[in-house]
Design brief:
Distance between the termini: 66 Å
Helix content: under 10%
Radius of gyration: 38 Å
Strand content: over 45%
Low-confidence stretches: 1-15, 18-36
Number of domains: 3
Structural class: mainly beta
Shape: elongated
Mean pLDDT: 82
Largest sheet: 9 strands, mixed
Number of helices: 2
């Protein structure tokens, strides 16, 4: 039964409150006083179990109105001297109370409706959980006075569920790919239903995961920015303590930095001394895109240490990480640098672009994308 108590007859003083004072009756008008006292609550359902249900109240006369501020009590139509209402199911353990106000002619009767808490419920279940790449267990305690056990809907193959008489355990496998999430529904007994999200995040790549062979896609000539080329390059360790790397396969071995907190690769400014005593500079350039008038941009160079060409892991795969290198912000002069190239310097003057070495070497590159094989 979803209704526990019901007011009947004269046993109503504990179930409702007559809010308007009787002293308002006129002493010299007995008839008026009798008319004001004729509105009485004859019977009413006022106590419910957690399953909720429907209730009814009966008054001595019609013409009254009903009001409630309780969102879980829904008032029905008034029909003559009676009215109906419904109470929502309750999946929480705490008992709740709401009031129905019965009004007529300036008088109000307050009926208190009480609903007992659920006997099957999850204890302190969150709306969402986050698990790292190593996986792990989520334990949710529960109380099931009906003897029910929890069931879980929406489980993907990387989450397993198990339970004993006191708790539900969700076991999340280790993550071998990109971030993932699942939306689950936990049911316990006939009332308790909890929707929650489990999100598993891979986190950032380690220094060791960056090392390896990559396919590089790039624009090799700023005068033809729509023509791309591909090549194979290798990223090897240079100084792990400083998160420095070396990329091999360009016109010269080139230093890269790694920012572990964001999984970001950075082409560092570099100076390498050549056998003939000249310096080989690897620096940002602005030649690899077209101006609004359709002309190719002149070679603008920057040795500003605050500017870097960098690419951040797209988080699609930790096994084959991909990095697309974006142009840095404009410098103080408003110059936007799009790519990088090698430049010769003799210690006094800049001598021009470096195009010596093996045929087919990569001297200039922009619109860079690195994908680990």
């Amino acid at each position: 039964m979803n209704k526990i108590y019901r007011y009947t007859g004269l046993a109503l003083l504990a179930g409702f409150t007559l809010l308007a004072p009787l002293s308002s009756c006129k002493k010299d008008s007995p008839t008026d006083g009798i008319e004001q006292m004729t509105l009485r609550l004859i019977s009413s359902d006022h106590s419910f179990t957690a399953t909720g249900g429907s209730g009814k109240l009966q008054l001595s006369e019609g013409g009254f109105t009903l009001q409630t501020k309780a969102s879980w009590i829904h008032l029905g139509a008034v029909e003559g001297t009676s009215a109906s209402f419904t109470v929502d199911p309750l999946s929480e353990p705490a008992t709740r109370t709401g009031n129905i106000l019965i009004e007529k002619g300036g008088r109000t009767i307050q009926l208190s409706v009480t609903q007992l808490g659920a006997y099957d419920y999850l204890i302190d279940a969150k709306d969402s959980y986050e698990i790292d790449r190593n996986g792990g267990d989520i334990t949710i305690p529960y109380l099931a006075q009906s003897g029910s056990t929890p069931t879980v809907e929406g489980l993907p193959d990387w989450i397993k569920s198990s339970s004993d008489s006191k708790s539900l355990k969700l076991s999340v496998d280790a993550l071998q790919a990109s971030d993932r999430s699942a939306q689950l529904t936990i049911k316990l007994g006939s009332l308790m239903e909890k929707k929650l999200t489990i999100r598993q995040v891979y986190g950032q790549l380690t220094y060791e995961q960056i090392l390896g062979t990559y396919t590089i896609t790039y624009v090799p000539n700023g005068e033809n920015p729509t023509v791309t080329a591909t090549a194979e390059v290798t990223i090897v360790e240079k100084d792990k303590a400083k998160n420095l790397l070396t990329i091999k396969g360009l016109a010269a071995d080139t230093e890269m930095g790694y920012i572990p907190s964001t999984s970001t690769l950075v082409f560092n400014h570099m100076q390498t001394k050549l056998p003939d005593g000249k310096l080989l500079m690897f620096t940002l350039s602005g030649n690899s895109y077209l101006l609004k008038d359709g002309k190719t941009r002149n070679y603008g160079l920057s040795w500003d240490e605050s500017l870097r060409l960098q690419g951040t892991w797209d988080k699609q795969s930790p096994i084959h990480p991909s990095f697309t290198f974006a142009s840095p912000k404009a410098d103080a002069k408003g110059e936007i640098y799009h790519g990088v190239l090698f430049w010769l310097y003799n210690g006094t003057n800049f001598l021009g672009r470096y195009r010596q070495g093996e045929a087919g070497a990569i001297y200039e590159l922009s619109d860079i994308k690195l994908v680990k094989k």
